[in-house]
Design goal:
Largest sheet: 2 strands, antiparallel
Radius of gyration: 21 Å
Strand content: under 5%
Shape: globular
Strand order of the largest sheet: 1-2
Order of helices and strands: HHEEHHHH
Number of strands: 2
Distance between the termini: 33 Å
Number of domains: 1
Structural class: mainly alpha
Helix content: over 70%
Number of helices: 6
Length: 181
């Protein structure tokens, strides 16, 4: 379904040869394996950095700690990981060749949108939501499904940004006609 959604968004790209059904079936599964390995590596590195954050270490003859700086560093590394993951999705999933620069633009937009949305959801569920009262033991499932829906929308919005950027570049080069006013 994701490939079909990307095909609609990137309809301005005409391919001489469509992707084979076997490639379309195998690419998402292979990508999931790569993402899972990446998540394990990120988890191990993040856990190691968090473990180091509470320890003191000797540097230049003085005892030092990571402190607040390490928390921000870990957060920024996580955002960079999100950007790279989303960029990889935009490079692999749509049919046709996408430039790394374009995929990176979409990855940055989607990651920033997701971070804003994630913080808004955390705030909402922590302060205003009565989801636990309404849904009881199913509250976590409902919140997770809502998060997946929002994540899918953010992913498609990032793809839309890439498509609009590509169309504007083609219009500037004269490859596409100007839209009517």
């Amino acid at each position: 379904m994701l490939e079909n959604a990307f095909a609609v968004i990137f309809h301005h790209r005409r391919r001489e040869r469509p992707r084979s059904w076997l490639a379309s079936a195998l690419i998402p599964y292979a990508f999931i394996v790569v993402v899972a390995i990446g998540l394990v590596v990120i988890t191990v590195v993040s856990g190691a950095l968090q473990a180091l954050a509470v320890r003191e270490f000797q540097a230049f003859g003085e005892l030092r700690t990571f402190g607040v700086l390490s928390v921000w560093f870990i957060y920024l590394v996580g955002i960079a990981g999100e950007i790279l993951l989303l960029t990889a999705i935009y490079l692999v999933m749509p049919a046709g060749q996408l430039r790394l620069k374009h995929a990176l633009i979409g990855g940055i937009v989607a990651a920033l949108l997701w971070e804003v949305t994630r913080h808004a959801l955390v705030w909402y569920f922590a302060t205003m939501s009565q989801i636990g009262v309404v849904y009881g033991s199913f509250a976590t499932t409902i919140a997770l499904l809502l998060s997946f829906e929002i994540a899918a929308t953010v992913l498609l919005l990032g793809a839309q940004v890439i498509a609009i950027y590509e169309r504007r570049l083609k219009r500037a080069d004269g490859a596409l006609p100007q839209p009517p006013l």
